[in-house]
Design goal:
3 strands; three-stranded antiparallel sheet; alpha+beta; 29% helix; single chain; Alpha-Beta Plaits; 23% strand
Length: 84
């Protein structure tokens, strides 16, 4: 399992939390998702694949929120899925 915390600057309220969590939670490969309203973050535990990570970002963006810094998902050795 891979854990990532994404900065989502436009998070501001409970509706944001419900919207993002509702869009990300049902995605294949997602174990948990937690929106931090005050921190303006989305913390996810997922299977660690680049495909799942891109689906997570897309789901957040489809709800109308920008994810400014995404980067590739790296494992504990710093390798991306394509480098494994």
């Amino acid at each position: 399992m891979t854990s990532r915390t994404l900065s989502v600057p436009d998070i501001s309220c409970g509706h944001c939390k419900t919207s993002i969590e509702g869009a990300v939670r049902p995605l294949d490969g997602v174990e948990t998702v937690e929106v931090g309203i005050d921190q303006r973050t989305v913390a996810v535990d997922f299977d660690g694949t680049d495909e799942t990570f891109e689906a997570i970002v897309a789901a957040i963006e489809d709800q109308g929120y920008e994810v400014p810094a995404r980067g590739a998902v790296r494992d504990s050795r710093g390798r991306t899925a394509s480098e494994r």
